[in-house]
Amino acid sequence: MFTGKMIFLLGTACLLLFAAAPAPFVPLFADKENAISSSVAEHFLSPLQQTDTSSKRPWKSKKCAVAITYDDAINEHLDNAVPVLDSLGLKATFYITAYSPACAKRLKEWRGVAARGHELGNHTLFHPCMGNMPGREWVSKERDMTTYTVQRMVDEIRMTNIFLEAIDGKTTRTFAFTCGDMKVGDSSFMNGLKNDFVAARAVRNEMHTIDQVDLYNLDCYVVNNNTADEMIEWVKKATETNSLLVILFHGVGGGNALNASLPAHRQLLRYLKQHENEIWVAPVREVAEYIKKYQQKK
Ligand SMILES: [Zn+2]
């Protein structure tokens, strides 16, 4: 039989257990909207978990990630874009078409670009595109992807990796689909190349949170004579939505009809630099490796 005193003691013990036991576990299972304060939650998480579970700063403790990319290896990248990037200490990705004249004639300069921390990405050997699409009259017979086999595409892309490794000594890098074309016939040629690349960039104007990014179909915003204000709005949207924003430049102060004026390009980069406390700016390779680790833990 329980005496009144025993019941009192048992009751007190149960209350203490109820009060003490669940507390350390609640933050781990609580929804992010839960009323438990983030400071309490963070107390029970490792530093890595704190970064990954913080819905507001999932990008190396920053609100968003921005990867700046330049396609096609054109002279204006070396002449106009690189000096601004280097003066601000920002690192970008240059998607190199190996056969382009500005690549062949300026190899030493591209080597220097890589040595200063920029990524030389793979944008194929000859820049083939599907010539049977509207507005693709400029695609030559020799560079028409409709005449390619998947194996030829894979071989040329792998040859470009060998070429780029000879320039920068790197064995990991990312790829950018030429014209955004992802298939030869009905077959995705990237399926056989996933071990050759950390990620592959497409051309669709979208941005995603770290858990939603498709590494082999990275979306990006294509610059087409946009003002600095318009491009800065993209960055603000990425910051507000905790997303990855990939920006794609072709011409910078000329060099391609898809152009950015020198002032607009400079102003965007300055904005990114000024907001480094909340924006992680890095080459695609670095951002993609971070996303891959994050998604593998899920
Ligand atoms: Zn291109």
Task: Note down, in words, how this protein is organized.
- The protein has helices at residues 4-20, 26-29, 38-43, 47-53, 75-88, 101-104, 107-115, 150-168, 228-241, 262-274, 284-297; strands at 64-71, 93-96, 119-122, 175-176, 183-184, 187-188, 200-201, 208-209, 221-222, 243-249, 251-252, 259-260, 279-281.
- It is of the alpha/beta class.
- It has two domains: 4-44; 64-297, Alpha-Beta Barrel (TIM Barrel).
- Strands 1, 2, 3, 8, 9, 10 and 13 form a seven-stranded mixed β-sheet that branches.
- Strand 1 (64-71), helix 5 and strand 2 form a beta-alpha-beta unit.
- Zinc ion (ZN) binds next to loops.
- Zinc ion binds at residues 71-72, 123, 127, 178.
Supply database-style keywords:
7-stranded mixed beta sheet, binds zinc ion, 2 domains, disordered N terminus, alpha/beta, 14% strand, 298 residues, TIM Barrel
Give a summary of the structure in a few sentences:
The protein contains eleven helices and 13 strands.
Helix content, binned percent: 40-55%
Gyration radius (Cα, Å) is 25 Å
Q: What's the overall average pLDDT, rounded?
A: 86
Strand content: 5-15%
Name the bound molecules. Answer: zinc ion
Quote the distance from N terminus to C terminus. 52 Å
By helix and strand content, what is the structural category?
A: alpha/beta
CATH topology of the largest domain: TIM Barrel
CATH class of the largest domain: Alpha Beta
The main pleated sheet reads as: 7 strands, mixed
Order of helices and strands: HHHHEHEHHEHEEEEEEHEEEHEH
Q: Quick one: overall form?
A: globular
Give the domain tally.
2
